[in-house]
Amino acid sequence: MKATIGNVIRLWFGADTPIRHHKIKLNPLLWAACQRVSQDFKAPSGALVKERYRKSDKTSFAKAVLEEMDQTEEPEESLQNAY
C-alpha cells in the first residue's frame, strides 16, 4: 500500500474490520507513524476526538503522518548513500 493521504485516512479513520487489521499488519511503519502523530495532533477545527474530525482535519492528520514518515526515512537513506 502506498503512503498517500487517502490511504492514511482510510487506515487510521476507517471502520474496524478484518481487512483493516490485515492492512495494519502489512504496513507497520505507516501504522506506527499514525500512532506517533496521533499523540500530539491538534485538529485545525478544534475537534477533540477523531470521530468528530472534519475532512480537512483528516487531511491535515494524513499530511502530518506523511511528513513523519519522510523524516524517519531520511536518516536511513543518507546512511545507505554514504557507503
Explained architecture:
By secondary structure, this protein is an all-alpha fold. The chain is built from 4 helices and no strands. Helix 1 (5-13) crosses helix 4.
Short description:
The chain is mainly alpha-helical and 83 residues long. Helix content is 71%, strand content 0%.
Total strands: 0
Shape: globular
What is the gyration radius calculated from CA atoms? Answer: 14 Å
Helix count equals 4
- Going by helix content, strand content and strand pairing, the class is mainly alpha
Model regions low in confidence, pLDDT < 50 over at least 5 residues: none
Topology summary:
Blueprint: H1 5-13, H2 18-26, H3 28-40, H4 55-82
Helix pairs in contact: 1-4, 3-4
Keywords:
83 residues
